[in-house]
Amino acid sequence: MEIFAMDYAILKVASSRFGGPGFLIHDSHLFDGVDARQVASAIEIGAQLAAEEGVQYIVTMNSDKFDGLPLSEGSPIRSHVLPVVLEDTPEGGLFGFRFE
């Protein structure tokens, strides 16, 4: 959560002083070992920051972890989730691309 707070501050300062970078990305590893309530709060705070600063806040997280988060009632976060399914099959790929 310390890294989340630092990233939040850096994005806020960089956006107001320099106009960039325009996005903040966090991987689920940032939240490893963190209580689900804190993770939900962090994602909601990140979304609020993104709306205020006019930037994007991107979180990559497995759906089983995300589905278990106690998001605030009426939170619009779930409506922003992209339904990406990664398949570990010969026909699968990442976002429609096959890497070999």
Please tell me the overall pLDDT.
87
Give the CA-based shape.
globular
| Strand segment tally | 2
Let me know the largest β-sheet: 2 strands, parallel
Structural class, from helix and strand content? alpha+beta
| Share of helix, binned | 40-55%
The H/E string reads HEHEH
Strand order of the largest sheet: 1-2
Low-pLDDT parts are: none
Describe this structure in words.
- With 100 residues, the chain is α+β, with helices and mostly antiparallel strands.
- The protein contains three helices and two strands; from the N terminus they run αβαβα.
- The chain has a two-stranded parallel sheet.
- α1 packs parallel to α2.
Which terms would index this structure?
two-stranded parallel ribbon; single chain; 100 residues; alpha+beta; 2 strands; globular
Quick structural overview:
By secondary structure, this protein is α+β, with helices and mostly antiparallel strands. The protein is built from three helices and two strands; from the N terminus they run H-E-H-E-H.
Please specify the SSE layout and strand pairing.
Elements: H1 2-18, E1 23-27, H2 36-53, E2 56-60, H3 63-67
Parallel strand pairs: 1-2
Helix pairs in contact: 1-2
